[in-house]
Amino acid sequence: MKPTILTISGSLRANSSNNAVIKAAVDFIKDRANIIAYEGLGSLPHFDDNPMPQKEVMAFRDLIGNVDAVLICSPEYAFGVPGSLKNALDWTVSSGEFMNKPVALITAATGGDKAHASLLLTLRVISSVLPDDCGLLLPYIRSKMNDKGEVTDPVTLAQIKQIAENLLQSVITTQAELEVEGDD
Q: Which CATH number characterizes residue 81's domain?
């Protein structure tokens, strides 16, 4: 059975470099995984600790709960995490959808180190699993793209492929281990 991977872009712009990075990653694994692109980041309400969250939040949580892994690609805005992405992750802090969920994090920006570090901390707080070699910082991403908005730098493409492969392999290994445990 093919694993299902949810992709989340931390940018709301349709032609963002983060969407291009996600597309490149997906292209490497799309024949071996079911891919779902989350496109509701901008429609989530502002986080609050209301015990009865709105339907958009419930749908987001359900989506995360029903996939095998998550691939996040985020820019860095003003040396931090984009508000819409942080808001989405905040909605999962107490509900547990990311608990033990394999996550790959790519930060593609001009710099990106501060957002990347902050996102890694948030992902640890929500108890996601960050498999080995499933984090990637891509500074100066625009210089690695062509005028059509596609990632073309061979080194960058190889790094993106490796992250996608590592995430997919992590899910496949976990599924195999669960099957063996179920046979006992």
A: 3.40.50.360
